[in-house]
Amino acid sequence: MKDDKPWFAPKRFGYGAGLPIAWQGWALLAVYTLVMLAPAPVLEWDPAIGLGFAIVVWLLATLAVVFIAKHKTRGGWRWRHGEKD
User: Fold this and answer.
1) Burial class (CB in 10 A: 0-12, 13-18, 19+), 40
2) Selection from 1, 52, 3 nearest residue 28 by Cα
3) How far, in Å, CA of 14 to CA of 12, rounded?
4) Is 2 helix (H, G, I), strand (E, B) or coil?
5) Are the CB atoms for 28 and 20 separated by under 8 Å?
6) pLDDT tens digit sequence for 42-79
């Protein structure tokens, strides 16, 4: 079973994805938010180790979300000048 339905609407102006239009997009943003908050206890426990850990986690999570959003945006990512899709 292949899910080709878009999760995000395209931005009306500029490049990239807009708000989610499917529950999967909202779930992705919720998980991303939790992942971004996850390194907080490590930062409190040992800031020297925690900062490196946090940067790696934040970078990998952001790259994953950008990759998924780019592939799951209706009409793909391209520069838009206000036209409606």
Assistant:
1) exposed
2) 3
3) 7
4) coil
5) yes
6) 777 777 777 888 889 999 999 999 999 999 998 888 88
Structure confidence at residue 61 (pLDDT): 96
Angle, CA 17 vertex, CA 12 and CA 18 arms, to 5°: 60
- Average pLDDT value for the chain: 88
Tens digit of each residue's pLDDT (9 = 90 or more) over 13-50: 989 898 999 999 999 999 999 999 988 887 777 777 77
Residue 41 vs residues 25, 37, 45, 60, 85: alpha-carbon distances, Å: 27, 9, 6, 18, 43
The contacts of residue 68 (CB under 8 Å, 6+ apart) are 7, 28
